[in-house]
């Protein structure tokens, strides 16, 4: 089949998210200027540069009690910092619970029963037991086409790695089962990996 997105796909469910998959989940923690912590998962997330290390995520919907975007976007807009936490399989229920629509100022950490830890380089909480966490300073906040679509690009200024996730000097995502987002309501866990050498290496 072929379709133009502007004309619709004619299927029971939108296939776009299923085509661009799997996507790592950025479990984003932020803090408001009033010191309210927030935690929310974003599946439009990825790394975008090595030097300096940079990551991006996109916020694609609004919230009635925010001028634009959701609490995560509002907090980053105000403070200029955020933390990206990696999601392991054992935390899948907590990650899902943190996606609940709570009022601005209501803390998802206790709501989802997630333990906090302090960041080192920024004024923000992180997920204490996450396999890895990336402390970020806002580099760019980019409006995208469409209502309530924004891309956040952050420079990584601090990296936390849980010791048991390091195997022979490498961060091993199969050790903890990294959770990824597919299309629709589907997720996947990475349990296997293989290595390829480029022809020029």
TrEMBL record:
- Tell me the ranges covered by the Flavin reductase like domain, including all copies: 18-173
Q: What sections of the sequence does the record tag as coiled-coil?
A: none
A Pfam family reported for this protein in Swiss-Prot or TrEMBL: Flavin_Reduct
The record's annotation in InterPro entries points to:
Flavin_Rdtase-like_dom (IPR002563), Split_barrel_FMN-bd (IPR012349)
**Known SUPFAM superfamilies for this protein?**
FMN-binding split barrel
Annotated GO molecular function terms are: FMN binding; oxidoreductase activity, acting on the CH-NH group of donors, NAD or NADP as acceptor
Under PANTHER family, the record lists: BLR2425 PROTEIN (PTHR43812), FLAVIN REDUCTASE LIKE DOMAIN-CONTAINING PROTEIN (PTHR43812:SF2)
Recorded protein name is Flavin reductase like domain-containing protein
Signal peptide residues on this chain, from the entry's feature table: none
């Amino acid at each position: 089949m072929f379709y133009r997105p502007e004309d619709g796909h004619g299927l029971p469910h939108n296939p776009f998210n299923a085509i661009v998959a799997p996507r790592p989940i950025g479990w984003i923690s932020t803090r408001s200027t009033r010191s309210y912590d927030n935690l929310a998962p974003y599946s439009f997330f990825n790394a975008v540069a090595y030097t300096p290390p940079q990551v991006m995520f996109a916020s694609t919907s609004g919230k009635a009690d925010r001028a634009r975007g959701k609490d995560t976007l509002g907090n980053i807009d105000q403070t200029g910092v955020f933390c990206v936490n990696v999601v392991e399989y054992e935390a899948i229920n907590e990650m899902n619970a943190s996606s609940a629509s709570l009022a601005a100022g209501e803390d998802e950490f206790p709501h989802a029963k997630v333990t906090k830890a302090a960041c080192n380089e920024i004024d923000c909480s992180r997920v204490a037991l996450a396999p890895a966490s990336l402390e970020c300073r806002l580099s760019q906040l980019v409006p995208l086409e469409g209502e309530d679509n924004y891309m956040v690009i952050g420079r990584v200024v601090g990296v936390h790695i849980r010791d048991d996730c390091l195997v022979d000097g490498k961060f091993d995502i199969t050790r903890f089962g990294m959770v990824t987002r597919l299309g629709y309501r589907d997720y996947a866990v990475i349990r296997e990996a293989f290595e390829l050498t480029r022809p020029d290496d």
